[in-house]
Design brief:
263 residues; elongated; 23% strand; 2 domains; alpha/beta
Length: 263
């Protein structure tokens, strides 16, 4: 008997799972997860969110970690397209929002090129969710009217031009920057940012193990090391960091630095 060819391809749903807390899923995301037959998910998707899937759903992890990927991005693209062309709907589940450092744009491009329907379901981004859970306003009329998001580990960190992204009236949010925190601090100070600029680190945002630590820019790399900060984590640079519910962790060796930590 000849193989049956699906009359139409399935749909790939690029779904934002938010920063971690299942309560922060959109209604659309929760419905898609709850009825999914196939979920392709990142490593940062909280297990409590995956538990919302039916017991019969097939779950495929394509977790990425620094310098070690369980599946390369091209292979992920091919997997999504192949499953959809085989007639299956695919829930591609990503931490945060699919289009903010989630490679959702690349996966959408692959679907378009293959003629596969693709729907994007936005999620609360790590920056938005992390800021809110730390009581850290990314904008504030007294402190910041500009917010920039950057990736702390990607193609050629040293070659990226960050000048002007942080400073008076600005907030800089750095994703995936824990492993390069010392380099980031040196880069920003070399661009003229004061070493006394307040910095907050939000670890495990919105999850039970959340920690919010605060220091000054010059101490950023040392803080990550001595506090054992682990991914996932966000680095927030700017005066708004002083408004966070955070533990002040500045190494108190420079008395003139202490005043800079006072809100």
């Amino acid at each position: 008997m000849a193989n049956l060819v699906p009359s139409r391809p399935g749909t790939v749903y690029l779904v934002g799972a938010g920063p971690g807390d299942p309560e922060l899923l959109t209604l659309r995301a929760a419905r898609l997860i709850g009825s999914a037959r196939l979920i392709v998910h990142d490593g940062l998707v909280d297990p409590a969110i995956l538990a919302l899937a039916p017991a019969t759903a097939e779950l495929i992890s394509v977790a990425k970690q620094r310098s070690r990927h369980s599946m390369k991005q091209d292979a992920i693209n091919s997997l999504l397209v192949a499953e959809a062309l085989g007639g299956r709907d695919v829930v591609r589940l990503k931490g945060g929002d699919p289009f903010i450092f989630g490679r959702g744009g690349e996966e959408q491009d692959a679907c378009r090129e293959a003629g596969v329907p693709c729907e994007v379901v936005p999620g609360i981004s790590a920056a938005i969710g992390g800021g809110a859970s730390a009581r850290l306003p990314l904008t504030h009329r007294d402190d910041a009217s500009i917010v920039s998001f950057v990736a702390g580990q990607c193609k050629g960190l040293s070659g990226q031009n960050w000048s002007g992204l942080a400073g008076a009236g600005r907030t800089l949010v750095i994703y995936m920057g824990l492993a390069t925190a010392q380099d980031i601090a040196e880069k920003l100070m070399a661009d003229g940012l004061s070493p006394h600029t307040p910095v907050a680190i939000i670890e495990n945002a919105t999850r039970p193990g959340q920690r919010v630590l605060r220091t000054l820019l010059a101490d950023l790399g040392d803080l990550v090391a001595r506090a054992g900060v682990r991914s996932p984590g966000l680095i927030v640079v700017g005066e708004v960091a002083l408004r966070a519910d955070a533990v002040d962790c500045l190494m108190r060796t420079q008395p003139d630095s202490l005043g800079a930590m006072q809100p």
